[in-house]
Design brief:
44% of the residues lie in helices and 13% in strands. Helix 2 packs parallel to helix 4. With 299 residues, it is α/β, with parallel strands linked by helices. The chain has a 4-stranded parallel beta sheet, sandwiched between helices. A two-stranded parallel ribbon has the order 4-7. Helix 5 links the parallel strand 2 and strand 3.
Length: 299
């Protein structure tokens, strides 16, 4: 989702000399293959958007896989970029790597100041390692490697798997299928009280290119809207967009996850960047993408 959005944004801005690889073409967890790719291509600028991602269920069921695959792929790419003289690299983290009970809204400086959320601890530890490796290369070797910390993302090419996707695409699929099946009610996890922030993926891509051109520094940059919505209100909004008119029930035996996760986006604003896609508009675009690409629901 993120990689394709960055490619769209680069093309929109007139960049043409783009080098990409699908997972089938290059498994980033294989160090020899990554080294060979960088030695052959010698990319000057690298956007590292690849990751193994998923929602609460996926994270809890595959703790070791999430840690290993993310740690391996990011270390392989960052290390190979450094060895092959990459001018600048941008690493994408995730807001879930901030402490579970960090002061809200979360500033970039709160990283590593408290305990992580247990439901995604493995993923968070891997992402923190990649971010810190970029910082340590800068400090030891004078590289210009930066990181950006996105909030919850959604948009074209999202994963709509019923159990392994994130909350917003999972809700889009759930309400769409309930509407098609004529179900009288839909059950959602938790109690609906957690607060979440969402950023349309094309807005993130715009920021990524913006930062690649205008920012250098060891500290990450938060990527978000500065606005939050309760999961309850989110479900009602998704139901509205998809046209589902039944009841919404809550299964309070299921985990809520982090109670609140709002990013402080002051730093990006001071650099001169601001998001452009409001949540309801973005959900409509995402639903259109879902309807136009039914195979995505099978992943």
């Amino acid at each position: 989702m993120v990689g394709s959005a960055i490619v769209r944004e680069l093309k929109r801005q007139g960049y043409t000399n783009l080098v990409t690889r699908t997972h089938a073409e290059l498994d980033l967890t294989h160090q020899d293959a990554v080294e060979a790719f960088f030695a052959a291509e010698k990319p000057e600028y690298v956007f590292l958007a690849a990751a193994k991602v998923g929602g609460i269920v996926a994270n809890q069921e595959a703790l070791a896989d999430f840690m290993y695959e993310n740690m391996m792929l990011e270390m392989n790419v960052i290390h190979a970029a450094w060895r092959n003289g990459c001018k600048k690299l941008e690493f994408l983290g995730s807001s879930c790597i901030y402490p579970r009970l960090a002061p809200q809204p979360m500033t970039e400086s709160c990283l590593l100041t408290g305990e992580l959320e247990k439901t995604n601890e493995a993923y968070a530890l891997a992402k923190i390692s990649g971010l810190k490796y970029c910082e340590f290369l800068n400090r030891q070797y004078g590289t210009d490697y930066i990181s950006v910390m996105p909030t919850n993302l959604y948009g074209p090419n999202d994963n709509y798997h019923p159990e392994h996707s994130h909350v917003l695409p999972a809700l889009i699929r759930r309400f769409h299928e309930a509407k098609v099946a004529g179900l009288s009610e839909v059950t959602c996890w938790g109690d609906g009280t957690p607060l979440r922030e969402f950023l349309y993926v094309d807005d993130l891509a715009n920021l990524c290119v913006f930062l690649m051109n205008r920012y250098s520094g060891n500290e990450t940059v938060n990527a978000g809207t500065g606005k939050e919505i309760s999961i309850k209100a989110l479900t009602e909004l998704v139901a509205k967009v998809t046209g589902y008119r039944g009841a919404i029930k809550w299964d309070t035996t299921k985990p809520n996850g982090t109670p609140r996760k709002l990013l402080d986006v002051t730093k990006a604003a001071k650099l001169g960047w601001h998001y452009s896609t409001e949540l309801e508009d973005g959900i409509r675009l995402s639903y259109e993408d879902f309807l136009n690409n039914p195979m995505r629901a099978e992943r």
